[in-house]
Design a protein that fits this description.
Elements (H helix, E strand, L loop, with lengths): L7 H8 L12 E5 L25 H13 L5 E5 L9 H10 L3 E6 L12 H7 L3 E5 L5 H8 L3 H14 L11 E5 L10 H16 L5 E4 L6 H9 L3 H10 L14 E4 L5 E2 L2 H5 L31 H5 L14
Parallel strand pairs: 1-2, 1-7, 2-3, 3-4, 4-5, 5-6
Antiparallel strand pairs: 7-8
Helix pairs in contact: 2-3
Amino acid sequence: MEPVSSTPFNSLLQRHGFWPLQRSEVRTLQVNVGRVCNQACHHCHVDAGPTRTESMERPTAERAIELLAANPSVEVLDLTGGAPELNPNFRFLVRSALELGRRVIDRCNLTVLLEPGQEDTAGFLARHRVEIVASMPCYEADNVDRQRGKGVYEKSIEALQLLNRLGYGQPQSTLVLDLVYNPGGASLPPSQPSLEAAYKSELESRFGIRFSRLLTLTNMPIRRFADHLNRTDQHQAYLSLLVNHFNPATVPDLMCTALLSVGYDGRLYDCDFNQMVDMGLGEDFETLWDLDDLGRLVGRPIATGHHCFGCTAGSGSSCGGALIQP
């Protein structure tokens, strides 16, 4: 790994007075339980799919819960993948975190709820009041199927209607259902509030679907999306777009400052994107078993790369959506 101060991203941070970029107290433990998925989306930064076999094993899941229990400052267990529901330890992680009084987020692709063997998963999520962050890159069928596979839009609508029947996303309900938009190609997301209004209008008028919030996410130039950019000769142009739209106002709220990312094998990273390009925390804190007190991470420099421009372009991007609202 390059020395932290030598990356182009950090050079720009230094110019704007934000270097060194350092970790603060960990508020979110984001656990990537593996790369097994029932979909193979064109934009997937995890490169997940039905043929992948990487999956978190029980001792690693148990260690993640031990770390959560030992660090009460961590408020949220954020489960991602792949399709996290397909991991055999998914329900153990959910129940254990809730018993510790933590919020739990499931990053769901929606169609997994209709897979054989998953018939009771939506009900499980509702009973345990798990917050759902669901991929829905457009309210138009053609755009969704082009990005995520033929027939995905129809199944996504069916899954959203199922979640609505269980109370998710309904007015006065505490069952959170957020949707995630990402562009279909090499462009930045539009305004999050205006796009949310369009989503809510279109989905309710067409299908009676309601949801809590829309989160916009910038496509990261790594893994499968990077391959697409290279095949279509857009990689350099897209990187230039991100760099040219760098917004220093996004830096204070970057998710990597208060999030710890855990890989399916227990390795530790500043964020899920760093995980996918193998930019770990370093030898001192390589895995879950190398520390008990997450407070030891406070003040450590954050590893950066070209993909970090994706989080700081325009209105910014994070697992919680845009970092700046108009």
